[in-house]
Amino acid sequence: MFEHLQNKLSNALHILKGHNTITEINIAHSLKKIGQALIDADVNYKIVKSFIQRVKEKSVGQKVLTSLNPKQLITKIVYDELVFIMGKKNVEMNLSKNPSIILICGLQGSGKTSFSSKLAFFLRKKNKTPLLVAADIHRPAAIDQLKLISERVNIPVFSLERSRDVIEIVNQSILYAYKKKNNVIIIDTAGRLAIDEIMMEEIKKINKYSQPNETLFVVDAMTGQDAINTAQCFLKTLNIDGIVITKLDGDTRGGVAITISSIVKKPIKFISNGEKIGDLEVFHPDRIANRILGMGDIVSLVEKVQEQFDEEKTKKIYQKISKNRFNFNDLLEQIQQIKKIGDIKNIISMIPGINKYFSFDGNQKDSIKKIKAIIHSMTPYERNNPKVFSDIRRKKRISKGSGITLNYIEIFIKQFHDMNKIMKSISAHSGNKIIKDFIYQIFNK
Question: Do 348 and 359 form a contact (C-beta atoms < 8 A)?
Answer without folding.
Answer: yes
